[in-house]
Description:
The complex is a heterodimer.
Chain A: H1 3-31, H2 43-46, H3 49-63, H4 69-81, H5 95-130, H6 135-149, H7 152-166, E1 193-195, E2 201-204, H8 208-247, H9 250-258, H10 262-299, H11 305-314, H12 318-346
Antiparallel strand pairs in A: 1-2
Chain B: H1 2-24, H2 26-43, H3 45-48, E1 65-66, E2 86-88, E3 102-103, E4 109-114, E5 124-131, E6 139-151, E7 159-170, E8 172-176, H4 178-186, E9 196-212, E10 218-221, E11 234-237, E12 247-251, E13 256-262, H5 276-282, E14 288-300, E15 307-321, E16 324-325, H6 337-373, H7 375-390, H8 393-404, H9 408-417, H10 421-434, H11 438-446, H12 450-486, H13 497-506, H14 513-541, H15 543-548
Parallel strand pairs in B: 1-16, 11-13
Antiparallel strand pairs in B: 2-15, 3-6, 4-5, 5-15, 6-14, 7-13, 7-15, 8-9, 9-10, 9-12, 9-14
Helix pairs in contact in B: 2-6, 2-14, 6-7, 6-9, 6-10, 6-12, 6-14, 8-9, 10-12, 11-12, 12-13, 12-14, 13-14
Amino acid sequence: MGLRKYIVKRIGYSLVLLVLVMTLNYIIFMVMPGDPTTMFINPIKRGNASDVEDMTRRLREMWGINDPPTMRYLKYLRNMMTWNFGITFSERTPVADEMAWRLPYTLILMGGSTVFAVLLGVSLGALAAHRRGGRFDAVAVLTSLVLYSLPTFWMGMLFILVFYVNLGWLPHAFAYPSEWALHWPIPFAMSSSSTGPMGVFMTVNPNGLWEYLMGYLRHAFLPTLTLTLFQYGGFLLLTRATMVEALTEDYIVTARAKGVSETNVVFRHALKNASLPLITSVALSFGFLLSGAIITEGVYSWPGLGRWIFDAIARKDYNILQAVFYIIALCVIIANFISDLLYGVIDPRIKY
Amino acid sequence: MPGIIEKIVMPLVSLKRFLMLFTRNARGMVGLIIIILFAVMALGAPLLTPYDPIGDKYITGAYSAPGWLSNVPAALGGMPGAALNMMVGENSKFENGVSGWNMTETPHVSMSYSPSVGDAESGSAKITFKRNETGKAYGDVSVQLYQRFTFPYASSPRKFVGNISLLTEGTSLPGLYKSWEWINQSLGLGRKINISRNVLDAPVLVYTYLQRASDGKVYKMWPYQGQLADGMDLVVDLANTVPAPALIFAVTDNWISSTAWVADSDVIKYVNVTSNIRAIFDEKLVPGDYFLGVNMTFRDTNRTKPVETSIYVDDFRVFLAGRIWGIMGSDHYGADLWSQLVYGARVSLYVGLLASVLSVVLGLIVGLASGYLGRYVDELLMRFSDMLLVIPTLPLLIVLMAVLGSNLENLILLIGLLGWMGFARVVRSQVLSLKERPFVEAAKAVGAGKIHIMTKHILPNVVSLVYVTLATSVPGAIVAEAALSFLGFYDPNKMSWGRMLYEVQANGAAQYWWWVVPPGLCIAILAVAFILLGFALDEVFNPRLRMRR
């Protein structure tokens, strides 16, 4: 089977998976109780019951809830494919717009922490495998086990307790100082303050790039730390396990016999061969990470997708949930697809 | 009889061998001991704590620190000399006569014990004012019923909750009494009720007080107008800035039970708590003797006839909520945190074990079927598991919890149903290699059915995986339960560690370390214990791993 055929097969498989996910996504929100129209009609203000009924019917028609299920399903599929996620029930703004400004916050958090976690986990894991049985190995495994099993939210609360309550070094909520008038993605304003309509001193803006960056970094530090520690344990354990296996292989003995330096043996010979499961794990961690993000963003009031999902569940805002689930699943599927292809690039022995 | 030996003795031998190997594994034993400790904690919860973790609120003051902090020096963050909970008012229900209570010697006033009259329970002190002569009124006659107590602590209490129940009777005139109107307004009913009632000839003015024994200073506790708290008849504020008179008992009606509240300055700031009584504990607090008393003033003005007024006093006590409490302190309701932690172990173990059993059984079935049957079954099951793997688990759990409703059974079901995919893959890959082995070939040749081969030939070879995965998948379930509870999807009838942390977050109480640290620590310790157990089992079952060490 050639590479092209393999790619076509993987694409076909990914599409099937996508349709399955979309269907499940549809079914879940079909059976979710509660009528979103009730949030928009105030029965007391509307007066009589027929008015309320009329209004409900019109809203349901407008949102397409009255259509037969098959029709709704097809419409839903079309909307997902065309990135038309509808409006949020609560704000009446397009879901896509809302998502567009929230997504960067979550991506920064998730991307940053994943990079740190992979770097830390892989290098420490490789080191632990190299010194297997030693004290470093024992400490590394134990700490990562503990970190791996700690509840994220508790870690976040502890950090707040230590760094915000006790030491007062770092802020505990939001992505930027709350007094700033301008935020993401506008870099910074020319004047350091803006005045309100009555000439009242209203808000402060960062004075230049340094303050702007520091404002964000200080706020991002604790959430990123939490998510990094949350993931790092898993990567360390996985790297260690595959490295232990790889370091016992014959080609390592050969490399050492050739006089290859120990660093090269560990990082170029062993790690490269041990990295395949890691790639799958990183690809799969996207979905996993969002679970961590919901909680971490909740603890730190971070204005990203996680908090948004949680608020949307409380408000029964199906459109938001469907869209976010779809986007996340899409990301994971694409990441899996790429990781499958990367296998062949990294390990030339793999023939498709 | 080889059959019996094979059936009974062989398993025993292998069990003995297993135990020997397992007990040699130090990490596994540590894990097992921790799990057993938590199991004891969960099962023995009613013995470890007398309190109900959800129902028993207001046991002590809000945010009390752990009790053992009184033995820690202040430099290390301890609270030496911190006040403990204290109930003032010995024999407060007047069950044993009037013992413990004293009355000031006053002419025309006498105290007696009334065994049959009482608020809720029989027994009260009866204070009677009596004038037999006519033509001369005595004016205001004051008398005090009091008790001496010692306040031994170096720091002031956190909260002050007082109670007194009063009932009047005596010679009276039928008529309309204005004070009834006033009382109704003071109760916040917002309407004037002018009802004809029998009105006492000599109404009584009542206030309760605390008096410092050393200098005799009196701190009055005044009735507070217009605030009703749930479950209380009358809320009495202790601010002496309220210019209102003391409660006037002029009508002979029902028991009036009052509850007096004082909040500590650094917790709840009531509007009028610039109070006298707080001063006694906050500013001029010295450990020493105080009097708890009730002052009754009989207002004798009607000189045209002989007069007799009695007032019954019952349930007179003051609860001084301390600043430290129990093993772990208290939450924002003044509920015991230790009992919450103890009962939380039940939920974590219950959810963790059941959910992991469910997910392992499901994973085993799916893995066996998919690996051995292959073809369409394999394709279908694996695509389905891929689909579940691709959707982020926690948001899916949250949505499904919102659909099905938050209770423990749903929680277990959902965590179990969404946690089998990884194990199914592992089992499948094992089965794929096992089914090519000669013994399966041989079984097929003899004519064994698929079910038979799967259960009798393949299952025994993956069963060690089952034990290991059972142990290592418990932490995931425990943490998932905690995370869902933390997000507010807890079973309202059960206290869990996640819910404790939810309460911390919901009340912005992150600064109280004794509330934040223990639940998460327990989750982490229990989770690590199960992982250690799983690793140990893995080493016992896989000789290859054992050799390597």
